[in-house]
Amino acid sequence: MRNAASGILINGEWVEPEATYEVRNPARPTEVVGEFARAGPEHVDAAYRAARDALAGWRRTPAIQRGAILHRAAQLLAERTEDLATAFTREEGKTIAETRVEVARGAQILRYYAGETAQPRGEVHPSGFSGRFLYSVREPLGVVCLITPWNFPVAIPLWKITPALAYGNTVVWKPATITPGCAVGVAEALRDAGVPGGVLNLVTGPASAIGGSLTDHEEVDGISFTGSLEIGRQIQLRAVERGVKVQLELGGKNPVVVLPDADLDQAVEQTVRGAMMSTGQKCTATSRAILVGDGAERFVPRLLERVRALRVGDPLRADVDVGPLASAEQLETVLGYLDVAREEGHELAVGGRRLEEEGEGYFVEPTVYLDVDPASRIGREEIFGPVLGVLRAASLEEALEIANSVEFGLSASIFTRDIREAFQFIDAVEAGVVHVNSETAGAEPQVPFGGVKASSSHSREQGKAAAEFYTRLKTVYLDMPPAEEPGRPPR
User: Is this prediction's pTM over 0.70?
Assistant: First the structure.
């Protein structure tokens, strides 16, 4: 991986920046991980020009040749797993076990879309007229802007970049400010695999300096954004005004519903994984555990015992379960919600404080509140930290009312042995992703991913559904010319 001051890749070349910024280790903020490029509007403009210039050639490249490049990138990423995972942990704070899994998932995404390049990209349709060949074909959307978050700085960029490239688009990519090293590692793997200059362009640095130039540029044909609801809606409004295609994946306030017949060991383990792994910094993280009937008396003690057993500390250590929050800003946000919980009077069962004994790192105890009011801020708002609220419901119907009472609708889970109640939940819950007897987090690359309500723009990422955003449909009516009459001179 490249070292200090990298981060601007334009037309296949790394550009030396005029300004840089420091990235620090959230487990020990006095440690500087590296210096990275602070891009300006001029770099964004150059990136878009390079992407536009490269579009025609990349679009003409046979799809299977594009797939071969993606397959080589998957192999390179897999070979570089340990280096990238270590850099990722130092930069973002996720445990080394989790970062290794995420890098492997990135390689899996690359392999999946390498295979997708050999799949049909159109359909033949029946016509009501004799002599007419009627078909539709998918073409690249064009130049796409990809804006990605820090919580999955390998997987989420690749589930945007890879289908974009597979379907013949060119890319201008802005990663999260606090995870530029991961972005450089991903971009290097793609460049070294043979992605031509200008097809993938990378600009790093604070969004405050380049956000408007990214989303408002005259060359952009589509914007895919994963991040906060507030920023996503701003991007959507500006894009719609200009007729630019836009795709948003935003927040979640994801519930698990535990029915009395659930396997308690399974329900507890999966709920804790969903709530606390990645330090709760997932849009699909479990924020609410809704306990139905008298099961709470058996579930809660096991839940608290499992949460207390979690090991918090240096994420590079193999025996650590939960690392730090990703930044000082995240720490401030989560601590603010702990203050809100105290003000709202929720019963604190475990955690609830910053871990000062871990030093100056951004560590917060895994936290559980009991008997949370569904209408409270803790019950409604996305916290994005290792904080779980436990709620009660008398029936599955009431649990569904609580689950659906928030503005978000990304992921939801139910634990039960009753297939009828499982399907009742699947049918009635307002979520784009539903799990039965597994945690709310987790997604496989071959199936659609996305939410409803305020969680997304109602589009879907991953799987074959990615083609809906990264391509446009062209319908062709091909009528046969009249047959030549015998003896008639050719026209």
Answer: yes
